[in-house]
Amino acid sequence: xxxxxxxxxxCTGNSCRSQxxxxxxxxxxxxxxxxxxxxxxxxxVNPKAVEMMREMDIDITDQQSEVxxxxxxxxxxxxxxxxxxxxxxxxxxxSGVKTEHWGLFDPAKAEGTEEEVNQVFREVRDDIxxxxxxxxxxxx
Length: 140
Hints:
With about 140 residues, the protein is an alpha/beta fold. It has helices at about 15-30, 45-55, 70-75, 85-90, 115-140, and strands at about 5-10, 35-40, 80, 100. It has five helices and four strands; from the N terminus they run E-H-E-H-H-E-H-E-H.
């Protein structure tokens, strides 16, 4: 039986960045990777992240906000931390697991008008999309 390699996106609360990364990863890498996300804590999926992903016709409403699963972490081929908190407070990642740190701004902390906040979410979402596409190209 063929098992796809696991790609694990980690963030602080598994509510925005990692949720968007999971949704994008599943769409972009679906046939190549088993994509998951988690956080140091579980804060619930941010409704604005759901809304901004819906703009790209990606539905993340069924995704769950979860804390890091050590078994999944230890089985991962690659772990991507999306914020400094996750990088600093993540449980020890086994030496054979490739890691990357993307250090993205937390869109949940964006301030301003609704359109300004939406734009920050879009910028983070689009940055994640481009990084995943680049990752896909590097792995071919």
